[in-house]
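One-letter codes give the sequence; the integers encode the fold. A sample entry reads:
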Amino acid sequence: MTNHKSPFVTLNNGVAMPQLGLGVWQTRDGDEVEEAVSAALEAGYRLIDTAAVYGNETGVGNAIRASGIPREEIFVTTKLWNSDQDRDKVRGAFETSLKKLGFDYVDLYLIHWPMPAKGLYVETWQIFEELYKEGTARAIGVSNFQIPHLEVLAQHSSITPAVNQIELHPFFPEHELREYGKTHGIQIESWSPLGSKGDLLGNKKLAAVAKVHNKSSAQVVIRWHLQHDLVVIPKSVHAERIKENIDVFDFELSEEEMAIIDSLETGKRLGPDPNTLNSS
């Protein structure tokens, strides 16, 4: 069994979270997700990021149990879907996720989208705080929250989110949210870190940096996230790519190389806008 490779970040409640993990969005439940998670754990990953809406929590749990690695050594994140954002639905949805995973706790539970027009995320967060205090969620956080949403939450809650998981990649680096996170002790986590829909990995400047280090463009982008102190969860279902994505701790990007990658910013989202997505 390969030893765990990723360094950790310490969340605002003292919980240690691996800085690099496997995302399983659009990975089918059953063999596909079980094989991907198994390959990741074998390669040294210890962070697995799923969500109720992904429909693959069962397979994630099966693969973790089959690995023989103690549960407490694996950091598992799942998320509450939009249709369950309601004071009376949160707890039932959380218990369903636990049952599918086959665990009695998760390491991190996130509100998947703010859905600002619905106005439910504050009451939803209050139930999250209860789950945290009960110990069934070791840390609680949000996903896709913008600064105004976080400000509202801060005014009506006693616990600051430990994590904000957002679309973040060199094309869309979210400077203000990252700075807000640093100021308020909220760890930023990057989804779609490789900017897949925007052909980031085909960029010539990126390829030139990768060639210097004898690495792939994907490895260089993952390294860029790590050096910006971000948690990063690249998704893959291919064992060789999964191994490649964690093989990023034997080189470092120079300040000049980081600046080259920073310069790729376009300011364009590749996914939905959290300010306008209000449906389930």
In short: The chain has one domain: 8-198+230-236. The chain has a mean pLDDT of 96. The first helix runs from residue 31 to 43.
